[in-house]
Q: What sequence folds into this?
């Protein structure tokens, strides 16, 4: 999935790493002749690339970013208390991930733009990627809740 760069930092050996809007980190090395990113070597160059789009393969794999923390949880929904809005396409905000946790029964999870149609259960939770439209639908009797994740404050 395409994600914009929101800031930069270093990895544990000093290489430049871009933080993408989804929260994933991606190396942006200048390593000629294999990788030519001379812009990363200067503050001005890095600033000029804020907002530049990079492909995030970890989003493609529905992987929660490392270090993200739970900050909110819904009540348990049933097929009767299920909010109608969840049946329609909706998304989380930039940088906000979620996990659908089924505690009883089954739930259908659809991400039409990615041609994903999954049956979630106690053994199979669903991962919600930021800003990606999705919908859910109860498949009979079901109990589930949603946990929301975000980056811990990086400026302490």
A:
């Amino acid at each position: 999935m395409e994600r914009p760069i929101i800031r930069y930092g270093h990895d544990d050996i000093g290489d430049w790493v871009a933080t993408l809007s989804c929260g994933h980190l991606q190396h942006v090395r200048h390593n000629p002749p294999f990788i030519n990113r001379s812009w990363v070597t200067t503050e001005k160059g890095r600033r000029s690339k804020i907002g530049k789009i990079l492909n995030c393969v970890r989003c493609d794999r529905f992987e929660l970013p490392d270090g993200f923390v739970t900050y909110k949880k819904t009540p348990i929904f049933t097929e009767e208390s299920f909010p109608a809005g969840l049946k329609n396409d909706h998304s989380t905000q930039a940088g906000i991930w979620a996990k659908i946790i089924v505690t009883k029964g089954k739930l259908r999870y659809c991400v039409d733009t990615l041609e994903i149609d999954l049956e979630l259960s106690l053994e199979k939770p669903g991962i919600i990627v930021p800003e990606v439209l999705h919908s859910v639908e109860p498949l009979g009797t079901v109990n589930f809740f949603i946990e929301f994740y975000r980056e811990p404050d990086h400026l302490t």
Notes: The first strand starts at residue 2 and ends at 10.
